[in-house]
Amino acid sequence: MNVVPPTNEAPGSGDVTAASFGRQMKPWFVTFLILQTLLLVLRWRMGDAHGALLMLAVVAVGCLALTVGVRGGIDEVYGGYFGLMALVSGLLDLNLAIESLVWGDWRHLHHAQAKIKLASFAKPLLYLVCALVQLLAAFIAYLLYKDAELDGDYDVTEPVFATPDDARIYNAVLSHSERQTSMQARGPGGIPPLKPFAGAAHKLP
Prior knowledge:
- It is built from 5 helices and no strands.
- The chain is mostly helical.
- The protein has a domain at 21-153.
- The protein starts with 12 loop residues before the first helix and ends in a 19-residue tail after the last helix.
């Protein structure tokens, strides 16, 4: 007989845990969304319209994950989409920063032979900051997604009861159903079913 140990966890405790973790990470999530919004406005004003539009798409998905989340948390599905988009956009900005440093600004040092202007490093620095913010936001989205995935696995594998009485009732019903199954296998009257003779036949005198 399979006996399930009683537990004091309330129904849907996995959802409550996921929602509480989402509420803990929500201030960081909102902070990175605000930073990305400010950075995309700055990129737009500096003439990088394509990068600003890409960041706008990432921020829009992040806002969607924030608004449709249950119990004041963050939706794990849209949060996963946001993390994936932020990761791709952050890697693209990192590539732009390296390309701008290698092929753009060092060329002024070689040709002009003068003091490097700080303004020449404005775009690479902006790209680096955008990449850092988006990669950190992608990491937070990854943590939220993994936490929701672990809670989902726990809900599937572990039975949850509100009180120990519920666990005892469940065990009683389970044992009763097992006894009914064994009695039906024995046949009517509780007599075990007859088995055919499997030995050698002998003729009596």
